[in-house]
TrEMBL record, chain A:
Main location: membrane
UniProt KW Cell membrane keyword: yes
Signal peptide start-end: none
InterPro entries: BPD_transp_1_N (IPR045621), MetI-like (IPR000515), MetI-like_sf (IPR035906)
Family: Belongs to the binding-protein-dependent transport system permease family.
Protein name in the entry: ABC transporter permease subunit
Organism: Neoaquamicrobium microcysteis
Membrane topology qualifier: Multi-pass membrane protein
Any single biological process term in GO: transmembrane transport
Cell compartment(s), UniProt: Cell membrane
GO cellular component terms, semicolon-separated: plasma membrane
UniProtKB/TrEMBL annotation, chain B:
Name recorded for this polypeptide: Peptide ABC transporter substrate-binding protein
Domain Solute-binding protein family: 72-447
GO CC field: ATP-binding cassette (ABC) transporter complex; outer membrane-bounded periplasmic space
Localization per Swiss-Prot or TrEMBL: Periplasm
TrEMBL record, chain C:
UniProt lineage: Bacteria, Pseudomonadati, Pseudomonadota, Alphaproteobacteria, Hyphomicrobiales
Subcellular localization: Cell inner membrane; Cell membrane
Database matches in PROSITE patterns: ABC_TM1 (PS50928)
Topological relation to the membrane, as annotated: Multi-pass membrane protein
Annotated family: Belongs to the binding-protein-dependent transport system permease family. OppBC subfamily.
Subcellular location, principal: membrane
Keywords, alphabetical: Cell inner membrane, Cell membrane, Membrane, Peptide transport, Protein transport, Transmembrane, Transmembrane helix, Transport
GO cellular component: plasma membrane
Designated name of the protein: Oligopeptide transport system permease protein OppC
Amino acid sequence: MFAYVLRRFAGAVPTLFIIVTIAFFMIRLAPGGPFDLERPLDPLIMANLERAFNFDKPLWQQYLIYLGNLAQGDLGPSFTRRDFTVMDLFRTGLPVSIQIGGMALSIALVVGVFLGALAALRQNTWVDYMVVGTATFGITIPTFVIAPLLSLFFGVMMGWLPAGGWGTWQHMVLPIATLALPQIAIIARLTRGATIEALRSNHVRTARAYGLPNYVVVGVHALRAAILPVVSYLGPTAAALLTGSVVVETIFGIPGIGRYFVQGALGRDYTLVMGTVVVIACFVIVFNLIVDILYAWLDPRVRYD
Amino acid sequence: MLQNIMKAALLSAAVVVTGVAGVSQAFAEVVYNRGNDTDPTTLDHHKTSTVAEGNLMRDLYEGLVVQNNVAEVVPGVAESWEISDDGLTYTFKLREDAKWSNGDQVKASDFVFAYQRIQNPETAAPYANMLYPIKNAEAINKGEMEPSELGAKAVDDTTLEITLNQPTPYFLELLTHQTGHPLHQASVEEHGDQFTRPGNMVTNGAYMLESFTPNDKITMRKNPHFHDADNVQIDVVNFIPFEDRATCLRRFEAGEVLSCSDLDNQQMDYMKENLGEQVRVAPYLGTYYLPVKVKKEKLADPRVRQALSMAIDREFLATEIWRDSMLPTYSFVPKGIGNYGENAELPYANDDILDREDAAKALLEEAGVEEGSLTVELRYNTSENHKNTMTAIGDMLKNIGVNSTIVEMEGTGYFDYMKQDGDFDITRAGWIGDYSDPQNFLFLFESENLGFNYPRWENAEYDALMKKAGETIDIDERAAVLKEAETLLLEELPIIPIMYYSSGSLVSEKLQGWEDNVMNVHGTRWMSIAQ
Amino acid sequence: MTDTVLPVEHHAAGRSLGQDAWIRLRRNRAAVASAIVLLLLALAGIVGPWLTPHSYDRIYPQYVRAPASLEAYPKEEAILPAFESALTRARVQIGEVEVSGSTVRAPVSDGEALDPRIVRYIDRSDLFSNARLEDADGNPLAEGASEGVMVADVQRLRFLFGTDANGRDLLSRILIGIRISLAIGVLASAMALLLGVTYGAIAGYLGGRVDNLMMRVVDILYSLPFIFFVILLVVFFGRSFVLIFIAIGCTEWLDMARIVRGQTLTIKRQEYVQAAEALGVSDAGIVRRHIIPNALGPVVVFVTLLVPKAILLESLLSFLGLGVQEPLTSLGLLIAEGASNMRGAAWLLIYPAVTLTAILFALNFLGDGLRDALDPKDR
């Protein structure tokens, strides 16, 4: 198993390299640069700026400079937030995104699996219909509608929670709820489907035939099988949630890293975009690995050697 | 597991306790949560250019002269000044009690240092041209001269002498801009590009930097060494960036911020109904206009451009689309600007739209454009308001038999495209004045000004007028020349002026001292919070 | 479970897998209802825009942000002032304005002869149509007369769902939005289907190094964030309907490729494939005749989930300001606009949101129904 993990990490290096290369040239090919603002700069001043940031060098040279810095763990300075390096921005932003995303993920997992299993066990009863109906509803409402509604209701009208901002645990409630709601819905549906299937499977029937108590059958045998699709869904989802959400961070004013990606790409903040691409790619790679390991652990038929 | 839960409970109890303690301590402290448009590019004011950055700098630094809460130019670090008769030499007398936030005295050399630094090509200051009126500034910025040759000299610690290239009636006002602020030489030299970090940054304004969390807030604390500290009423200002104006509105309603720097036009009706006097809309020095690519054959005839302009119902755009957060205009230079008289105006400003449409059709016919044969592309950068504006304009052009297509572009690419002489017909652009002088608007369309002259309009007469205005000392005479230039601009119409910007803000009833003004400047030092 | 004891004669009739699934799908009431709803909405999206009285890009300057109402506009109390203000613009003297039923009349006079062209001031208004000048007896006014009566019909317009910030009928915009959103969903999914199935089947079938390499490419693309890709595409090529579904299709085919590859690996080991191989059928032939048809079940189910996903992705793009180009619109774009107007003009959010929810609900239930129907284990 250890050798397997090691091999996967070694394999991640060329993957990252290719991603960095694609992203670097794609963003640099986009028209405009970090200094093209609504109010244009004097050409002379523009030249001064470009010199200061090596933009006057040929692109391949800039690429090599970037790669060299990256190899040393230096993501470079940010062009649109010049008091910070890209690393500084992630150092302050990533913990925030991870806190919110992690909480949302955990809540979604617990609540989603519980609701899904409940619906499966009560298949075709009103409980089932309620869960499926609510879950479908949860998937269909875009976050950018839920977020302002929650903020409006709990923040402005009721005054129970802050309408936005960051600082105390109260500030985290609404963003976490916004992020968790659609995930609860998806996880509940996945769990329900898989549990129904698992309950019909041979090993659960066998367990029942052996006269094992119902909660053991459901809790241990059925759920273990049912959680598999959830786990494989969680890989990319966890990576996405932990690296922040543009919508939630913009609407609640949260200093995470979710916004940097869009801000960076639209503002042509090359280093910031590259940094975000690298961070997201790392998260995706790591979580895919975790999923594979969990899979092997949950499903004895899968073996990695 | 249980242990963990216990720990978490204890921890949260501790948080609550400290939270309460924080509140009781804060009781003595007046905190102002202030909405701002965005985070600054940097706190190094030499590298800033936006209005949002100006708001921060106004609190952190004090220039030779400053704008008070009604945007009048009043003494700042300089307690008095003399201007030579030829208008070329300014001698500022600095106040002795002007102090940096670390207690050092603010000296004339701090200004000289700052002014030399901003012109140094290595600084790559985007707004260095603001101070080009200072002698040799432009040459230094081009790398043709040494920074030490700049026309700003410290005669002694409290006397600063600035020499200009030519008389500049708006020079004092220029100095209120953030590019005119001093820098604490010792800390800049010690920390290099880290000098703006909290802890390193030394400022001479009413406030000093405490912390800066990107996308969250910038916290400033009252500077105890500030010469007028006794009259500064607010102890802590938190500048909170709001990319989404609706978010600011919600937090304003929830009482979490006391002011918003912009209004969400979409919710204008709601706000006026529910927030009353707290919604502030004030005239602003800015124009929303449509550059027309005059090089294109179909748009080369000024009569065609006039016809398009006539058909645009500016009143509808201002009141219905922008919900009165804009004012209709038929001039390019904003009304009420300094050093100017009555504006030049398009002749059909007061005509009814239907008569104008008839006139427009007649003009098109005269220019040989048959009804339905002209199709123009209307291009804009992503924003709901621009989208609605262009959609409405397209509909208005239909009334004079001109077809239109609409193209939306994403912001950065859009401005690059316009600047690079992109192949557009008609686009939108806006210009907010940096100082209250018509020159700051009319210089945009000088032939050589390739960065701003989106229509690529070349007119020797206009250039000559602008040059003449630059050399004229007498204010009234200069105003007349500039008006001639504006008249010419409106006759040729390479740009169609549509609306004047207004500055919109939400200002809580509790916040006192916020006065609406045409420059939209609101230094925190002039404000107080009623309990 | 009862299906396991199928009557023999049915087998003799040779009920295929497809027919079997069809029968079971028809028994699923939620799925049938969803299919009907979807069909109706699709129909509304396709023909609706031609049936509504207002075109989706027609601007009514006098009805900006008119609230949703069953009653026709203009409201009674709005007629009189509107007529007066329109006449004032014509710069003539106005007598008392009378409203009777659906006609408005007012005596007008001028120092000189009345210009017959002043009727256009009334006609231009969205509230009136068929303006004409008459004399006191109701006959057309003689030329050169300086007094007469301005008569106009009140133009009754219905905006069942209200109008938007430009004064366009929201119902018509929703209908065109349905068309665009469904088209994006279907086309993006079709694109993902085409790319993913081909790619996955080839990788799975060829196996070995090629498979390794091909899946590595998928892994790499997987780690490139979706938004990055779309923003760049929009920046390069501008915003167009085609681009958006291509962008979404291009990012969604990765999952599909993985699923199909997995299926292919399983199918490849089946006896009938090995038999075909032994008979010398070409690789392309085997992929086309055996692999793809047999992998179709899970693929179909996945597609029904992909369509709503594509629609939602498009709405995210709209929120970021990267959606389809005016005057076209999509449900996502309408919702994004509505969300920013929710305080003052709630109808702008509610109606598009309800429509989108209905579509996504139906797609989800249909997907579930299909999965149950196609699942061979479920027989």
